[in-house]
Write a structure and sequence with these properties.
The complex is a heterodimer of chains A (about 350) and B (about 350). Chain A has about 350 residues and is mainly α. Chain A is built from 13 helices and no strands. Chain A has one domain: ABC transporter involved in vitamin B12 uptake, BtuC, CATH 1.10.3470. Chain A is globular and about 50 Å long. Chain B is globular and about 70 Å long. Classes of the chains: A mainly alpha (about 350), B mainly alpha (about 350).
């Protein structure tokens, strides 16, 4: 909980203040709404804000307590095997979700082309197995990076609408993938990928990669110039542009990193399934977006963190696992997940001091 | 008249419909097939659910919102209609529409009263509705055993229509009348254009938003109900494809994603364009990937029309090539964009 708390207050500081000091509890002061470009007086006086964050924490604590109590009364929930299962199920979606956090922070909302891009990366990875694991990984990552960075450049430099753009890219990428693969399944002859399915210390490699990716993303967001600029651009892109920030470049960088994450997810999906078809990635798009939202990243941008997304991923995996153990159907699990996302979106919105309209 | 035609909300749908109809008429002879009445009928059958989804999504987009949940309501509507309408088809449709309206009203209420952006709310609702639909049916498709209703919704009326496509057309006419003859149409565009200003000007933003989402939920549930009657089964997970096609149709219909622009007849033209294109792909047995690339190309065109940054870049390029004093023109352009930025700050 401590880390989560830290990062929540971090996020509260992630407004335009150049050097957020840790003791201060004030909302971002300058930003107006992105939609109207006008500003609303910062009504987040510090006491009010503390009260609201308190509410948010109380609610999150309640959710955690509810999960723990339900877990304690469910047989086999608190076991090492189950913990491993939860982590394993969270890993693939989690890696993409961490990347999606970056583009949501920079203000590009969501990408609807995630599944197709992951599939392409998976196909590239499997069809280059004979070149060795390292080369195959590099080529797959380059494919994901290239496809996604182009979209990021269009969003950043031309202010193209990300939703339409990613729908179009989804069609284009999916269509090209089917065209080139001839619609057939790719079964590699050489199985260089098998080392990715290993489970050192009983935990799949993907989980370690997820932890690494989340830490790197967190470092980029908190400690690099580009990362700090992502928050500023997401908060108010017009102001960021006027202030001379390289909006186009930073947006493209965020998307490029996102593309790397998608490709890594695709690589693990391919290794796990040992083959790639055009429907490989299934519900990755929605799962990743849901995880980012449950992590409390604001869809309008400017707020959020990679570690919070990690918490969102684990929370969703925990709850799904709990429901599975209690014998609920896939549909019921999905229903609970949707309600959870809705709930978090509302709570995060209410606890934020920004008036959006 | 000329001004009317050059506005994007009429120009884009008019051009797309003309182009697509031309393709529709020309494609069969090129590939050696005959264009039959049945092709037109089939295109309209595809238009029936797509049109309702496009209308629902499109009117929320005019008001600057984005109702992603329509495809969830669509799935749930189909399932509810099949579950409750085995004996009486009308009862099934009524139940589906009531459920859709209730879901829309709740979402609209949340979005309006709490001032939450609609994308995350409707995304969450979409996931929840998909789960609910799947939980209702145990994850399987549900068969509809009322051949009378299945026959009725698809029977041929006036050679190319069916009750399903006529209901969709009627919905468009009703929407055009309501938005054209009452102040609601102007209010929606005002809400989409500048919400704060329209609130100040006395537009009842909240009430309009709740109504809007209620209508879009109703239309989506109706589309799902009629489609599952036609297929004689309800599918718990239609995927994102219906939504994506509805977005394509709405954008071809001249709606902008930033809101404040669009007309019901434009949406009608957009939905017809997409339905005709799908039928062309079916007639010419175009491979699936080619259809996908086609939609991607269409969207890129729309995106080019809609992307402010790209337009500025093109304008700048044109200005540079046109004016001899290219340096001056560019400088004033830049000065303009900087002062725009500062007004956004103040």
């Amino acid at each position: 909980m401590t880390t989560e708390n830290d990062h929540r207050s971090d996020a509260a500081h992630s407004g335009p203040a150049p050097l957020p000091s840790s003791g201060q509890v004030g909302g971002p002061t300058a930003p107006g709404t992105r939609r109207t470009g006008a500003t609303e007086p910062a009504h987040g006086s510090s006491s009010l804000r503390v009260g609201q964050i308190g509410l948010l924490e109380v609610i999150i604590a309640a959710v955690v307590v509810a999960v723990v109590i339900t877990g304690a009364t469910t047989s086999r929930f608190f076991s090492l095997d189950n913990a491993r299962a939860i982590l394993a199920s969270a890993a693939t979606v989690g890696i993409t979700a961490v990347g999606a956090t970056l583009i949501m922070i920079v203000g590009s909302a969501v990408s609807l082309a995630i599944a197709q891009t992951a599939t392409v990366a998976a196909m590239v990875f499997l069809s280059t197995q004979q070149l060795g694991l390292g080369v195959a990984i590099v080529l797959a990552v380059l494919a994901g990076l290239g496809l996604t960075a182009v979209q990021g450049a269009a969003v950043g430099y031309w202010s193209a609408n990300p939703i339409v753009l990613t729908i179009a890219s989804g069609f284009a990428v999916g269509g090209l993938a089917t065209w080139i693969s001839g619609g057939s399944t790719i079964y590699p002859k050489v199985k260089a990928y098998s080392s990715l399915n290993a489970t050192p210390l009983g935990v799949p490699v993907a989980v370690y990669v997820l932890a690494g990716v989340a830490l790197v993303a967190q470092w980029v967001l908190r400690r690099t110039t580009a990362g700090r600029q992502m928050y500023l651009i997401g908060e108010n892109s017009a102001a960021a542009r006027a202030a001379g920030l390289p909006v186009g470049r930073v947006t493209a960088v965020a998307w490029a990193l996102f593309g790397v994450c998608i490709a890594v997810s695709g690589i693990f999906l391919a290794s796990f399934n040992m083959s790639a078809t055009s429907s490989l990635s299934g519900t990755l798009t929605l799962d990743a977006t849901a995880a980012v939202l449950v992590g409390g990243t604001a869809i309008a941008g400017g707020k959020g963190s990679a570690l919070r997304t990690l918490c969102g991923v684990v929370l969703i995996a925990l709850i799904s696992d709990l429901l599975l153990l209690r014998g609920f159907s896939t549909g019921q699990q999905l229903l609970v997940k949707g309600i959870l996302v809705l709930f978090v979106v509302i709570v995060v919105h209410l606890s934020s001091s920004r008036g959006r309209r | 008249m000329r001004r009317l035609l050059t506005r994007p909300e009429t120009l884009v749908p008019a051009v797309s419909l003309v182009v697509v109809v031309a393709i529709f008429i020309c494609a069969p002879p090129v590939t050696g097939a005959d264009l039959t009445r049945f092709d037109v009928y089939n295109a309209l059958q595809g238009f029936a659910p797509l049109g309702l989804l496009t209308l629902g999504l499109g009117i929320t987009m005019i008001a600057g919102e984005f109702d992603l949940s329509v495809v969830g309501t669509y799935a749930l509507g189909g399932m509810v209609a099949v579950e409750t309408g085995q004996s009486s088809a009308l009862l099934g449709v009524a139940a589906a529409v009531a459920v859709g309206a209730a879901i829309g009203a709740i979402q609209g209420g949340l979005i309006a009263k709490l001032k939450i952006p609609s994308l995350p709310v409707t995304l969450a609702t979409y996931i929840a509705l998909l789960g609910l639909t799947s939980a209702l049916s145990g994850g399987l498709s549900k068969t509809y055993t009322n051949p009378g209703a299945t026959f009725w919704v698809d029977k041929t009326v006036v050679t190319v229509f069916s009750p399903r496509s006529l209901i969709t057309l009627a919905a468009f006419v009703a929407a055009a009348l309501v938005l054209g003859l009452t102040k609601i149409g102007r209010e929606l565009r005002a809400i989409g254009g500048d919400r704060r200003a329209s609130r100040v000007a006395g537009v009842r933003v909240d009430r309009n938003l709740v109504g809007l989402f209620t209508v879009s939920g109703t239309l989506a549930a109706l589309a799902g109900a009629l489609l599952s009657y036609s297929y004689a089964s309800a599918n718990p997970d239609p995927g994102l494809q219906p939504l994506v096609l509805a977005v394509v149709a709405a954008l071809l219909g001249g709606v902008s994603l930033t809101g404040g622009r669009g007309l019901p007849f434009g949406l009608l033209a957009g939905a017809l364009s997409v339905a005709l294109l799908a039928q062309v792909a079916a007639i010419t047995s175009l491979p699936d990937y080619a259809t996908q690339l086609l939609y991607a190309g269409l969207l890129v065109v729309v995106l080019g029309i809609d992307a402010p940054g790209l337009r500025q870049a093109i304008d700048r390029l044109l200005a540079r090539s046109r004016a001899r004093t290219s340096l001056l023109a560019d400088a004033s352009n830049q000065a303009g964009s900087v002062s725009d930025g500062t007004t956004g700050l103040s």
